[in-house]
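Suppose you are handed a protein chain with no further information: no name, no annotation, nothing but its sequence. What can you learn? This example shows the usual starting point.
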Amino acid sequence: MYRPLDHPLMHRLREQVLYSAGPIGSTLLSYNLGPEAYVAADGEAHDGCPEWLNVSNPAVLEKIYHSFYSVGVDAVDSCSFGANEGGLAEFALADRTRELTRLAAEVIGRVRDQYSTPEHPRYAFGTMGPGTKLPSLGHIGWDELVRGAREQAIGLIEGGIDVLKVETCQDLLQTKAALAGCAEAFEATGRRIPVIASVTIETTGTMLLGSDIACALTTLEPIDIVDIIGINCATGPEQMIEHVRYLAEHSRRPVFIGPNAGLPEVVDGQACYTLTPEQFAKHQTVFAEEFGTNIVAGCCGTTPAMFEAAIAAIGRRGPKFRPAAAEFLRGVRSPYEANVSSLYTSVPIEQDISFLVIGERTNATGSRAFRDLLLAEDLDGIVAVAREQAAEGAHVIDVMVDYVGRDGTADMERVASALRTQSTLPLVFDSTEPPVIETALKLYGGKAIVNSINLEDGERKIRRVLPLIRRHGAAAIALTIDEEGQARTTEWKLRVARRIYDLAVTEYGMEPGDLLFDFLTFPLSGGQEDLRKDAMETFNAIRQMKAEYPEVHTTLGVSNCSFGLKPAARRVLNSVFLYEAIEHGLDSAIVNAKQILPLNRIPEEQLNTARDLIYDRRREGYDPLHHFIWLFENVEAAKETKIDRSKLPVEQRLQQRIIDGDRRGLEDDLDEAMGRFDPLTIINEHLLEGMRVVGELFGSGKMQLPFVLQSAETMKQSVAHLEPFMDKAEGSTKGKVVLATVRGDVHDIGKNLVDIILSNNGYTTYNLGIKQPIQNIIEKAQEVEADAIGLSGLLVKSTVVMREDLEELNSRELFHFPVILGGAALTRRYVEDDLRSIYKGTVYYAQDAFEGLATLDKVVPAAREGRPLPLLTRGGAEIARTEDQVYDEVRVTVPGSGDESGGGPKTTDYVKSEVARDVPIPTPPFWGSRIVRGLPLRDIFPWINEIQLFRGQWQYQRGDRNEAEYEKFVDDEVRPVFRRWAERAIADQLLVPQVVYGYFPCLADKNELICWPELKDGKPAGEPVRLAYPRQTTGRRQCIADFFRSVDEARAGGPQYDVVGMSLVTMGDRASEFAKQLFEANEYRDYLHWHGFSVESAEALAEMWHRRIREELGIAGKDGPDHRSLFQAHYQGARYSFGYPACPDLEEQTKMAALLQPERIGVHLSETFMWHPEQSTSAVIVHHPEARYFVVK
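A reasonable first move is to predict its three-dimensional structure. Written in structure tokens, the prediction is:
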């Protein structure tokens, strides 16, 4: 349990912000020392070893120390960063680790003592670097790391160092081992000094192995030896902002922040740090004054001048109060955030909208399938089971390898080594054997749960396991078992739980929140009288324990309650038992999440009887157990049924394979078919017939798009298998089609879906990609003698580009090419009326890929046969050329043009608004812009709008299902896909969330919003930009500028400025690159899923950041209670994005770019003013209470 260390340095940290300099290595590099500097007096030389300078040239180190102490720095690092066994081994000095670190402490101690006074004590920090080997990747073992850190720490302590600084941590397992070595050093020397644990967050926003800052804090928080937590190295302060904020908001300990002097830049062929002292001071002032950091530090490239500037800016002020650090700062117990972590992310034990699901399928005792994999030592299979549990909804995974006749320690070593890097979910190490648990903990960099501790043999075993749990910072499941056996009654269960609590918390110092008490589940299915009331005893124990010890947590192995029943009955009873336990305060359960049913899907009679059984509501003539068993007498667990193809003729089997999207055994069927048919016949008559049926099923709403793409994958694989057996002449095509997304548009999902459907229905496609000028399209069409051109575009601006492209084809007299147009901004009427009147050839509208296919199936044969091309409309239906067309009026309106047909109002007209003028103007936490990196993906994913993703992006439509059937379909089929991609995005770092956002002083000038880049001396400053907004021509005549104070109001003595928020979020280039890889690999269904998931993740980040901005502006109090309500804009103000109805002119985004400088997060504007990468979105944030979405007409 965390208790602040009683030490003079820690007392001083309560009183004032301290300054700590650590750029020893980079300063030495700037000296360009020659080999002679590394030669000791006795001639021993170790060229290039910084730690050897403590022997050979201490004066050069003392010069560095003087330069920092002399400007007022409180602490300076020793020259011992690489003095571990691994680092020193490169110089044949490994056996002298303790000697060199002791000497390092003595050298800096001499300089420290020259500056230290009672009024201004100075400190020497003993730096301990990470070494070069990553234990989570198997480079080095735990024991070796601990031994090396122990020697390093003992030497520093013996030399008189004031603080041990375990820094630049890249692998949390290495960090934990180093901290364990420090603990052993304290035991060996009998001296306890403060310990800093400082991690390194790369420019990607995570530690080197992918750990985010939440994961790092969760892992380090329960380790008592850590007194100060921080971040150092890798980036400059600008890239650290969000990580610093997170630590300040969540760390109970003082926070240490040591950035580099910016990111290195190459100047005159040399890598240089370009951060100025003023910039360093500015950022550190934000960290200390706004966030509440405690130690202003500096790493590579920082200089005495930077610290001098920081001290002048911040001064010797006291630390800002942080609620999370209340215990350290004011002696008031801080709330403990009980979380567990994998190597990548943190997971709270207390879930917001669920219980903590502990997956039970990786258990050698409970799962035969897992046991078989374990016995076969099939690690890939074991990893697959773990990942599948994540897709099914597990939050953590129970791993149990103990099995009769097996070496549990060896098995755990194999399994834990595989899962620690390949599972994104935290692990529960489940064993009754302390050596097995110890083996697992030594391999695991995250914060695990140990399952379990108990008092079965008194205190003998629990006293062996609790020290392991404390040493490794784990949580624990505590079973209510004592010397008398498994506790049955409420009183017995509570008696055992209290004993374990006293041992774990009072004696060994565990955090109460890290204890999960399992009050045991006994079978309700056997009918034994002594078991009938066990469920109620367990529920009562849960409720009373939570009341008596509110910080602890509870768990149950739910499936025990239904042991011996039929599978269908077990599923119902487990589900009802679980929900009843949750009502009594259960926090978590060891369960197969896939087998838990929502109560609304359980028939009422089954539900009521299950409850009667749980609460033993027997009465005369009614035994709920007997009735429950009878209800399921003729019920089997639902099983998926598939058409049995085995007895079908091979040609029908192939057709059905295409429809089912089933590639297993496909080559065998194709080989059999080639015994009877030539390859071209197989393709044209059997495989394409399957694709025709797929198209019909899709068109009638009976097949969802992802399953269509699965069929296309099967078609592609079939053709690839047959191609080697076909003559070149046989490879004839139904037609050649050039596809492109038009100039300036970065959206390619629609075009690529067309490519998939056409190429798997006999057409040859030439997919040119995104942002294609018409010249490229024409050249390719002429080169391949295309039968048609397909143009795609999502943006309103793209419809104008399409018109221009058609006019270019006209001007070059290339109108013999039929052109098919598609995209979200197009309408059928616009294409079939306006654009047909412009293009001298034939132009068609395709609502989706299958309409494009139907169109080509009619157009291409006509063109090849020299017949007139048909005019087609909805669904490929042909219309007579002479038929009079009746369409709504179609206009392409340029923003600001208003109603061209008469003298009515224009969107550029100004009218006085009725919007309230006296609303309070919020004060932002800063002016200007900030960059945010390293946001935990698990924090972003809950903000994904599942309706938009599932139905919009992925097109899993309800079809002819009723609402209950569709909900079940989503739970069983769609949501697992979502979870699978979420875990893969984390594990493979496919998404790199970044934000640039800011607050700018502004004033409205009629329909324009003047935005200044900064505020200086209380006044807007810098070169302003003017955002031009259109005004409604009818109705309320609204304009976004109306929601801000105006220039006229400022002149009249009102507020001199208002505030506007702006944000730009991105998921990075990797998302688009990975989507491209999937498409090119013909993984069409994965491509659709990933593209939609990544796009909606960007939208989720935008929603999440809008919430952050409302919080920072102090207007989040009016937010709706849940995400769904926020998706429906139940909050104060509005978020407007250019390109949408209230502000359709995308070109205005250039002005946002001038203020936000998005190139800092790798985002730029295309020539048609769209953000690239595609998974990026921007917004103007309006705080006015009346601001709502509206359409400019």
